[in-house]
Amino acid sequence: MPVEYSGIIDEHMAVRTRVGLFDVSHMGEIEIRGSQALELLEWVTPGAVSPLQDNQAQYTALLYPQGTFVDDILVHRLSAHHYLLCVNASNQKKDFQWIAANNRFDAAVEYASEKYAQLAIQGPQALATLQKLTSIGLAGIRYYWFTHGNVCGVPALIARTGYTGEDGIEIYVPPDEAERIWRAVLEAGKEFDIRPCGLGARNTLRLEARMALYGHEIDASITPYEAGLGRIVKLDKGDFIGRDALVKQKEKGATRKLAGFEMRDRGIAREGYMVLIEGLAAGFVTSGSFAPYLKKNIGLCYLPTDRAAVGQMIAIQIRKQAAAAQVAPTPFYSRKR
Amino acid sequence: MYPDDYRYTKEHEWIKVEGDTGTVGITFHAQKELGDIVYVELPKVGAAVTAGKTMGSVESVKAVSDIYSPVTGEVIAVNDTVTSTPEQLNQDPHGSAWLVKVRLANRQEIDGLLTAADYQAYIGAETAH
What we know:
The complex is a heterodimer.
Chain A: H1 8-17, E1 20-23, E2 28-33, H2 37-44, E3 56-63, E4 69-79, E5 82-87, H3 92-101, E6 108-111, E7 117-122, H4 126-131, E8 146-151, E9 154-159, E10 168-173, H5 178-188, E11 195-197, H6 199-208, H7 243-252, E12 256-263, E13 274-277, E14 280-291, E15 296-304, E16 313-318, E17 321-328
Parallel strand pairs in A: 1-11
Antiparallel strand pairs in A: 1-7, 2-5, 2-6, 3-4, 4-5, 7-10, 8-9, 9-10, 12-15, 12-17, 13-14, 13-16, 14-15, 16-17
Chain B: E1 7-8, E2 13-18, E3 21-26, H1 28-34, E4 37-41, E5 48-49, E6 54-60, E7 64-68, E8 73-78, H2 80-84, H3 88-91, E9 100-104, H4 116-128
Antiparallel strand pairs in B: 1-2, 2-3, 3-9, 4-6, 5-8, 6-7, 8-9
């Protein structure tokens, strides 16, 4: 996946206003099968997996005993005894090893990345584009559900998921058919002025929608509560890896919190820049960019919880200048439904 | 593409000299490598700049890049249109999107800069890496 095709802004705007196509085949896949596949997933993720029905997906995580992130992942329930996990490319080996090492259940863990290519069709015209290539009624797939069907005559898993803040579909297909489907989607999207999109737009789109990126907002030192992802933690579902640490943190309250900010002075905050409050170091920028749709300079950073409220003035150390910024409501961008 | 009457740096700036004044910008190659340019920071009128030293920065959506002064001298004009509409740098980097005009302290510095042919050979080699 290249950084850009026609340009990050052009690609970003295509997804916000029309449709864009991403080749996200670099993402990793792990399959879990067996009579205790559910028990294994309940143990290695903080979410409630048992309420999932066949063809339903869930955003969740793998956590260390400290309650911090191994990775953030998607779980798809194919059947009661068969699950497909979609994980970050850079973490796929680590995730597989982590799940396998914690598998004390009657379940088989398969490293399945080679079996799948993945394409993401995203934007207000995403369904209309892909609909030309499948007989499955895409509008009938609810958000965070999926179905099996043919795309271009090829068996595919078709999910109403995405990482852009827009409506859209992600399809999992056999790798040797991916290029043909890629071309067919671009052809089908021509009437909507579709754009092939790269990693650059994928990053700016997810940032506007305040979606976390492993290695930036979340990593082995950050818990879901700190990252503003408390909704993925179900403490009452029974024991799971990281639960004790999260119970303690919830009782005491997390001392730091992920906050969104907008620049008030000129300048663009970038990952790693220092955040100052009243002249004192208060944290670091985890992601920062010009936001192409909002046309503002935005970013995310960790702040002490008592200084992270919307409206808090902060400064970002940009080279030699401390540039003013202000904690802002997130997501920065929400699509109109 | 690269005007013959300009001189160039390996850091991808150009300078056009008229009398004792040099007009400075970034090259077509530089803006192409950066992609969509969204922010430009320039020195103020009256600032002293030094050949080979940072005088500002240019940022695209994906990257930050320093701007190095090709010459030593005093800034006598700044192109405010570029700071307010940075995307001009993607459209006309060798023309209307010039960055600053500098009163040259030492005209001989120009002789040490790359010619258009040298620069194109240089970026050709760099691109081939």
